[in-house]
Amino acid sequence: MSLSDRFSPRSSPAPAEHGSPGWVVIVPVKSSDVGKSRLSDAAPDRAALARALALDTIAAAAAATAVERVIVVTEDSDIAAAVRRMRTVDVVREGDTRGLDAAIATGAAAAGSDVPRAALLGDLPALRPFDLDTALEAAEAVERGVVADAEGEGSTLVTARAGATWLSAFGEDSFSRHKLLGCTPLDVPVDSTLRRDVDTAEQLAAASALGLGERTAAVLASSAA
């Protein structure tokens, strides 16, 4: 699959009506030197692979029609430098916060409560903007929404309508815990690229079958050379 195919969706949902705010998507990214430790066997340079996974995810989110702004929460200087060149992407320092939910909360606070917000995991290298648009369109009908990962146990996306208090519970069995928080499961197809997060070599292979973003593909190609 070519880059143009990934970023030229078949028929994206219509953008937000004039005067209504678009979605703010928050992407938490660990420092590349510690992130994705289970991918050490997938590429000689694990840090470069972790960075590529995040940047492909962020680029896809920024290209989605429904997304007005992307907030990247990170302490990784290389990630911060790269995304500052992307239109509509801002960087917020993680600071002294610890843990995924705390980092996301920092981004949600920066977004403000008067806009619809979504937390997107930063390890979706096959993500197509169309698939994110489809999920966000469904999320407009609920106060809080959640998208399960491909295994059905974790979560890849959590949403909150404008005015709703931000809540998230990422981690082990997060899909069940998000439902307990009042999140409505969003009707996203099982083969959606939004559901294919990557923590292991097997999951990376599954994402590859969907079509990887250019940065992740380049790192893997370099590893194979």
Automatic annotation (TrEMBL):
Keyword terms: GTP-binding, Nucleotide-binding, Nucleotidyltransferase, Transferase
Pfam families: CofC (PF01983)
Ranges of Polar residues composition bias in the record: 1-11
Record-listed E.C. numbers: 2.7.7.105
GO biological process: F420-0 metabolic process
Pathway: Cofactor biosynthesis; coenzyme F420 biosynthesis
UniProt keyword annotation of Ribosomal protein present: no
Catalytic activity: phosphoenolpyruvate + GTP + H(+) = enolpyruvoyl-2-diphospho-5'-guanosine + diphosphate
GO molecular-function terms, A-Z: GTP binding; phospholactate guanylyltransferase activity
Binding site for phosphoenolpyruvate: 171, 174
Region feature (Disordered): 1-22
Gene3D superfamilies with a match to the protein in the record: Spore Coat Polysaccharide Biosynthesis Protein SpsA, Chain A
Stated role: Guanylyltransferase that catalyzes the activation of phosphoenolpyruvate (PEP) as enolpyruvoyl-2-diphospho-5'-guanosine, via the condensation of PEP with GTP. It is involved in the biosynthesis of coenzyme F420, a hydride carrier cofactor.
Family: Belongs to the CofC family.
Protein name, as recorded: Phosphoenolpyruvate guanylyltransferase
